[in-house]
Amino acid sequence: MTESEERAERPLRTSSEREGSQRERARPPPLPDPLPAEVLDSHCHLDAMGVDIGRSLASARAVGVTRVVTVGDTLESSRWCAETAAAFPEVVAAVAVHPNEVAGIDESTWDGLAELAALPQVRAVGETGLDFYWDRAPAQLQEDAFRRHIALAKSVGKALVIHDRDAHSAVLRVLAEENPPEWTVFHCFSGDAEMARDCVRAGYVLSFAGTVTFKNAASLREAAALVPTGQLLVETDAPFLTPAPYRGRPNAPYLMPLTVRALAAVKSVHIEPLCEEVTRTGQRVFGSW
């Protein structure tokens, strides 16, 4: 039976049942069991979570997530991320204009990003790259902005964080042409095993999100299995991409253990050394907290 056929076989729900289901989707998942060693969330959007940041970070610490990279996607959100990183010692920031948001930006935007990128609490430029899934900005405009972000990361000597959606070959081409900085991270890696091998050979770091726990993500797990732990990061992309079994509910840094444990199983390694290696990789990429 296909998924659509299965849905058709389900009995119609009453309005109260539908409301109950909606409330369940909106309810934050419970805290998972703590990790045996500290780990970092290499990519989240604290500004988009709509929760108290102090409480969210406390929940993350309770399960072993002691460091967080909060990532901007507009100049305004990048400023927010930089300010939040200055206020909370466990947080550092990445700043950029997301490829879906580059239509209409001007030189004042680039000036603002350059000012933010130079701040000590800002450790990366991103997320930047290419997104050919949505049709919110022309491909050439995205590529031009991508190249400027790469140049900015190199000028300030900081990491580059890549957004790549349905644009694998184009992203790899631009990176090869622009000679990216030493630390280049593919946020929420979505390629297959062949692309993962290409990225590993190029020296890029691959960050895996809750998508690796999804039932339909066998090819992604195959890719994750072959990435050396020294080139591996883990992220939530909160409030998005909540890992199973809570897919569709609000994501947050405290849910990192679910993805870390899934990756440990995929790679057939123990959880504690995986946490330690991921933390070391995070410190190489983003510096010390």
Please characterize this protein's 3D structure.
The protein has 289 residues and is an alpha/beta fold. Helix content is 44%, strand content 16%. The chain contains 11 helices and 8 strands. It has helices spanning 3-9, 15-26, 53-62, 75-87, 107-117, 139-156, 168-178, 193-202, 218-225, 256-267, 271-286; strands spanning 39-44, 65-71, 91-95, 122-131, 159-165, 184-186, 205-208, 232-234. An 8-stranded parallel beta sheet has the order 1-2-3-4-5-6-7-8. Helix 9 links the parallel strand 7 and strand 8. Helix 8 (193-202) runs parallel beside helix 9 (218-225). The model is unreliable at 1-10 and 13-21 (pLDDT under 50).
Provide a short characterization of the protein structure.
With 289 residues, the chain is an alpha/beta fold. The chain is built from eleven helices and eight strands. An eight-stranded parallel beta sheet has the order 1-2-3-4-5-6-7-8.
